[in-house]
Amino acid sequence: MMNSNGKFEEYLLKSRKDLKTVNAYGTDVRLFLEYIKIPLEVIDYIHIEKYKSYLFNNGYKISSINRKMVALNVFMKYNGKNIEINQEKFQLQSFQDNVIESEELFKIIEQAKIRNDYRAKALLYTMYYTGMRISETLQLTVFNIEQDTILIKGKGRKYRNVFIPNKLKAIWKEYMNFRINKGDKLFTGERGSITRETSNKIFKKYARLSGIDVKKAHNHNLRHLYCRKMISMNVDISTLADLVGHSDINITRKYLIKSKKELLDIINSLD
């Protein structure tokens, strides 16, 4: 048997690889050795290709497989084995995956309503109706709930006005009857203002309860949803960029790439 995985990781550290890379390479090599179950001395190109097929058939993305091949390439060279390990090529396709649809969000909010979680309801609707980032949403205070526009500090320390629809103000008013009074921030818990991590946990909790894929339940997905809904309402992209605080309109364009579901719906509608 050739050099152990432990010695390989020591070699990586001495080669000035960062700890995250060392751990990732170490894990990738360990999983390969557990799969192959033969001495390193007899491993060849065919074994590597079989392992790639195994990964692909078990649902690994091409990008993940290629990363593992990079790790194995370094490992084999470290052990003095000259095996040609090729990465798989793939075409970058312009569609968004794991995006949330309005109907899915409403199912998630319905689970919060069933459990009388008015904070969750108000939090999710706030991001949906305004397109604010979670960092901006958590800036809101109890003094903002009657305002039509709110001055918010966005990315890059740039300030902008966020427009508040009447239906959201009504939701905030309802929430205020149940809000935990721990400071001036609008969204609070027993320890004071909540964090973005708490917000994500709330989102994922109700996604699970509603049977929605938790990969879709992250704060920024609601900003994407807001942008897509605005475009579907014929809001021009320049106006949308102003609404969401993008100084570069090309950033806004990235939010408007169709989802996998939307593309499938188009394909399935063909006569």
Automatic annotation (TrEMBL):
Instruction: Report the domain of life of the source organism.
Output: Bacteria
The UniProt transmembrane annotation reads none
| Entry keywords, A to Z | DNA integration, DNA recombination, DNA-binding
Q: Where is the Core-binding (CB) domain?
A: 1-80
Q: Which residues form the Tyr recombinase domain?
A: 95-268
Q: What GO molecular function annotations does the UniProt record carry, in alphabetical order? A: DNA binding
Q: Name one GO biological process term.
A: DNA recombination
- Pfam families reported for this sequence: Phage_int_SAM_1 (PF02899), Phage_integrase (PF00589)
Q: Which SUPFAM superfamilies match?
A: DNA breaking-rejoining enzymes (SSF56349)
Q: What does this protein do?
A: Site-specific tyrosine recombinase, which acts by catalyzing the cutting and rejoining of the recombining DNA molecules.
Q: Which family does the entry's similarity section mention? A: Belongs to the 'phage' integrase family.
User: What name does UniProt use for this protein?
Assistant: Integrase
